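Worked example

This section walks through a single chain of length 346. The input is the sequence exactly as stored; nothing has been trimmed or padded.
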Amino acid sequence: MVHTHPLREIARQAGVSEATVDRVLNRRGGVRAATAESVHQAVADLDRQRTQVRLTGRMFLVDLVMQAPQRFSSEVRAALETELPSLRPAVFRARFHLCETAPVAELVAVLDGIGRRGSQGVVLKAPDVPEIADAAARLVRAGIPVVTLVTDLPASGRQAYVGIDNRAAGATAAYLVGQWLRHDPGDVLVTLSRTSFRGEEERGEGFRAALDGRRAVVTLTETDGLDATMRERVAGVLDAHPGIRAVYSAGGGNVAILDAFDERRRECAVFVAHDLDADNTRLLRAGRISVVLHHDLAHDVRRAAHVIMQAHRALPGGILTWPSSIQVITPYNAPAHNPTDGLSGT
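Given that input, the structure is written out below as C-alpha cells.
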C-alpha cells in the first residue's frame, strides 16, 4: 500500500502499535483482518485530512464569464456566491464578467484580460466560435484552468464541461411534447438564443431526432433569448405557421413567447422550457408553462470549483466530465421557493 505517512502517525490514527502497522503495510501476515482494515482505513483518513490541511487558507480567485440573459446569469451568480462558503477550508473569491449580448471580439478581450491579470480558474459560458475557443486555449496554456458551463467549447482544451447532457434534454422535451400531443397533429416551435451556443444547438438536434416525424418543426434562432427580440420574431413565425401548437424553448425569452401567442389569441397546448429562473417559476406556477427541464446550478458551480482545485492539485483524483441530472419539474413538484430567490445579483 503506497503511503507517505510516518508509522507512528498511522499507529496513532488506527489505535495499534507501530509493529502492527509495519506488518500490515508490508503484508507480513499474522494480523487479524479487522485490525488490518483499521490500518488501511487510518491511512485513507490521513490522506483525506492531508488534503484538508493543503487547502486550509488557500485562496482561489476565479472568474465567471457569461454571455446570457440577465435572468439566467443572475441565477448562476447567486448559485456561485451561495456555494463559495461551503468550499472551506479553501477560500474562493469570484470576479464576474456578465453580458446579455456582446461582439465576439469583446469576449475575447475579456478572456485575454484575465490571462494578463492572472486567475486561478475561469468558468465560461460563451458561443462556440474559433476566436473564443482560441482565447480559452490561451488561458489553459498559461496555467489557468477553464471549465465550460451549460454549453461546451470542446476545441478549447478546457479541463471539463459541467451541465446537463443537452442532446438528452432535447430528446426528453420531444418525448414530453409527443405524449401531450399524441392525438393532436399540431406543429412545434423550437426557439434558440443563438446556434453558436453548442448546448442549445444540441438541444435542438436531440429534439428533432426524437420527435414524431409526422410533425413540422419550425426553428427560431438568433434572438439572444431576450424578450424584446423574441416577441416580434415569434409573432412573425406564428403568422406564417398557423399549425404551431407547441413550444420547446431551449433558449429562454418565455414571457415574450407567450405574449405573442396571447396577442394572436392562439393556444399553446404544450410549452417545455429550461431552468427554474424567476420568470419560469412564475409561469409554471400559473400554468402557462407545462414543464421545466431543470438542473441544479449549485451542483454545477460546486463541481466547477472542484475541477479548478483538482487542476491545481489541491484535491486528489482525475478530472472527469459527466452530465448533471435532468430534473422534470411540473406545477406539482415545483419547489415552494426558487433556491436562489432573494440571492440574485443585479
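What to look for: Residues 33-55 form the longest helix (23 residues).
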